[in-house]
Each structure stands twice: as C-alpha cells, then as structure tokens.
Amino acid sequence: MRQDIKALGSLLLLSREIVIVTHANPDGDAMGSTLALMRYLRNQGKRAYVITPTPYASFLKWLPGDKDVIVYSYQQELAKKKIEICDLVCCLDFNALHRINELGELIEKRDVKKAVIDHHLFPGKFQDVLVSNTKASSTCELIYEVIEQLTGSDAIDEEIANCIYTGILTDTGGFQFSCTTPRVHQIVADLLQKGVKPDIVQNRVFNSFNENRLKLLGHCLSNRMTVYPEYHAAMIYLTKEDWEKFNVKGGDTEGIVNYPLKMQDVYFSCFIIERPDLIKMSFRSKGDFDVNSFAGTNFEGGGHANAAGGKSQDNLEKTIERFEKALPAYKEKLNTVNLG
Ligand code: 5GP
Ligand code: MN
Q1: How does DSSP assign 119-169, residue by residue?
Q2: Which of 99, 125, 138, 154 could form a disulfide with 171 if both were Cys (CB 3.0 to 4.6 A apart)?
Q3: Choice from 21, 304, 312 to test ligand 1 binding pocket (greatest atom count within 8 A of CB)
C-alpha cells in the first residue's frame, strides 16, 4: 500500500480542484472519510468538495464540514459544475461507479484522473490510482494511513480526527467486529490525543434516536422478525406502510439488521426493506459465514464477509420467498459456522 499512497500523493500534488465522492445513503465511514479528506486537502491549500449521491442520516450532520457537502439529488447543477472544473476525482468507500448511478456516469465520462480509497472486496477497475486494503476496518482507517504517510499525523487536527474516529467507530460496530485490530486501537489512541471526546461522539452517533425510531425498532423485532432455527438465521422486513406509520427517514433503519445477531444461536441476519423504487437488502453474519458471497449469488449484491447488501426487483412477498428458498443451500455451512 505504501507505493499506492505515494502514487496518490503525486496525483494530489498535481491537482488543485478535487472532487470527493462516496456511495449512496452514505454511512458514518463514507461521511467521515470524505469530510476528513476534504478538510485535509483544504488545509494543504487545495480546493476540495464532497459530493454525495443522496442525503445522509441526521446523526452525521454534526460532522465538521457538513455544511459544505453537495448532495447530488438536491443540487445537481452545482455538482455537475464541480465535476466539470475539477482536475481529480477521489472515490471513497465504494468500488464501482455504477453503484452511484447518474453521478457515476458523469464521473466516468469526465476525462480526469480518478483515485479510489476503499476497503471493500473486489476493488474497481476504473481508477488511475488505488489505495485498497480489504482487511482495513474502514475507509477512515485508510485516510489516517494516507495522511500519516504523506505529511505525518501532525496534519490531523481535531476536526479531521473527529471525522476519522466516526468512520472507525461505525464500521467496527463500536469496536466489536473482527476488523478491530491492534492498529485500529493505535490509531484511535492518537485520535483521542488530538482531541476526540469518545463519549460525545458516541452519544451523537448511537444515542440520538427520536421516539419514532426507537418504536420502529420495537415494531421490527416484535412484528416483523422471523427466526429460522434450523438455519441459525433470522430475517426482518419492513413494508411501505411501516415507513408511513413510523414516519421513517433515511438512516432510521440503520443498524436494525444487527439486532437478530444478538441471539446466541443466530449467525446470519437479513433485513429487507421496501423502498419506493426497489427492494433493498442488508446482510450481516457472525464468524465465517460469508454474506458477501450470499449477496452476490442471490441478490445482485456484495460488500464484506460479515456485512453486505443487495437488491431485488421482485415485490416484497416474492423477495421474502426467494430469501427463504435460498437458505437450504447454506444449511450445512450455517450449521458448522466457526465463531472463532
Ligand atoms: P448496508 O447493509 O449497510 O447497506 O451495506 C453493507 C455493506 O455492503 C456495505 O459495505 C456496502 O457497501 C455493501 N453493499 C450494500 N449494498 C450493496 C449492493 O447493492 N451491492 C454491493 N456490491 N455492495 C453493497
Ligand atoms: Mn466503509
């Protein structure tokens, strides 16, 4: 990775106007990494802008630089202008331009250098420079490595530290997942030295539900969850009517998919949500059950071994049926999961 970071450093040196983009429905890592890089580049005298394909959850609105984010779905003209005049595009926390639809097409057509910084499996092929480590906890961890190698970690101020901390915090599930390495804790120790207050960030990120959101979680667990004991699996679905009843906003459903894994004998969790345009699915697992492969084989998706997503063009009922029909092929694997 050192050579790749060096190549990225050369590209950054040559660039003055840099557009930073991330995936749709950006999560803590997507927003943390893009805003950390934006501030770092601005501190280095560059003009840098973050463009997101869609809006993001309100629990991320406190992040430093939030006011400057250009949301493509609301501000298409401004986003197009920035893409036209930029001399470098940095793509963070995703691996294929088609995943960001129209915005991806605009970027693909634009004849400028492209860099990718990402920790997903199967990094893309469209970029000129790739900084990838599929074992890294988060793209934010990679941003830390980039800054440390290019200018030393003294260039990380309190604002950048808060952004990086947020992405590591959310992508490790609060330092729970197996990607929580000694390096993660070393980096986090340095971020705390730089002024991050973990209690404050954790309250903003994890303890900022409104009443509806907590009731929605209760509804999902009580009325919308099926457990399949013979497959060590569980599934939760959410209908359009549920969206309306609980006044669900983007981000409110974040994390629901993790709850079934709180059961001792459940190793595989699926969350199916009926969105206006399509059915979106989230998958999570414990141990060595590979949901990246499950998502790819069954629901046109991917992600990581323990956290992946996918989609379905069928209606909700048919999608649930397809999910249930897919389970038997994984029975043996799910009955021999190695939890480590
Ligand atoms: P989430 O369930 O939080 O939406 O996504 C979990 C992980 O899977 C994320 O790392 C995300 O990038 C990836 N992911 C989610 N949806 C898709 C999809 O439709 N296709 C692919 N390839 N990856 C996805
Ligand atoms: Mn990530």
Answers
A1: -SSS--SS-SEEEE-TTSS-HHHHHHHHHHHHH-GGG--HHHHHHHHHHHH
A2: 138
A3: 304
CB-based contact 288:275 (threshold 8 Å):
no
Closest CA to 228 of 336, 340, 325, 337: 325
Q: Which residues pair with 20 in a beta bridge?
A: 50, 90
State if residue 301 touches ligand 1 by the CB under 6 angstroms criterion.
yes
Give the C-alpha separation, 187 to 181, whole Å.
Answer: 10
pLDDT over 90 (residue 340): no
Cβ atoms of residues 39 and 65 within 8 Å:
yes
Task: Write the DSSP assignment of 44-55 as a string of letters.
Answer: TT-EEEEEESS-
Please tell me the distance from the alpha carbon of residue 205 to that of residue 242, in angstroms, as a whole number. 24
Each residue's pLDDT tens digit, 176-210: 988 999 999 999 999 999 999 999 999 999 999 98
Give the span between the Cα atoms of 208 and 205, in whole angstroms. 6
> Residue 182 is encoded by which pair of tokens?
């000694």
pLDDT at residue 272 is higher than 80: yes
Cβ contact 139:93 at 8 Å: yes
Among 151, 169, 181, residue whose Cα is nearest residue 207: 169
CB of 305 within 6 A of ligand 1: the answer is: no
Q: Give dist(CA 49, CA 15) in Å, integer.
A: 13
- Regarding the beta carbon of 163 and ligand 1, being less than 6 Å apart is answered no
Using CA atoms, how far apart are residues 278 and 294, in angstroms rounded to an integer? 19
What's the whole-model pTM score?
A: 0.91
How many Å apart are CA 94 and CA 96, to the nearest integer?
6
Q: Report how far ligand 1's centroid is from the alpha carbon of 46 (Å).
A: 31
C-alpha 120 – ligand 2 centre gap (Å): 7
